[in-house]
Amino acid sequence: MDKKEMPLRIDEKTEDVLDVLSKHGFATTGMLVDETGYSRPTVSKRLDRLHAAGSIEYLHEPTALWKLIEDPRAEESE
């Protein structure tokens, strides 16, 4: 299955994670937890979904650094 075929449900929590990533271009999981105020499991679930959809890339495992590749919200507005 092509990653782009995977549906991505963008709820309020996913929006908040995307807001931080789009502001900085990248963020660690810890930074996303701090910036959004959500629990680590909540943020991790959103990151897993965004990664499966091809919207973010996992750059550095020791620091859990994520990079925004393509904001899926831009596709929704087209």
Overview of the molecule:
The chain has 78 residues and is an alpha+beta fold. The chain has one domain: Orthogonal Bundle (Arc Repressor Mutant, subunit A). It contains four helices and three strands, in the order αβααββα. It has helices at 12-24, 29-36, 40-52, 72-76; strands at residues 26-28, 56-60, 65-68. The protein has a three-stranded antiparallel β-sheet with strand order 1-3-2. α2 packs across α3 (40-52). The protein is globular and about 30 Å long.
| H/I helix tally | 4
Reading side by side through the largest sheet, how are the strands ordered? 1-3-2
Beta-strand residue fraction: 15-25%
Number of domains: 1
End-to-end Cα distance, whole Å, is 23 Å
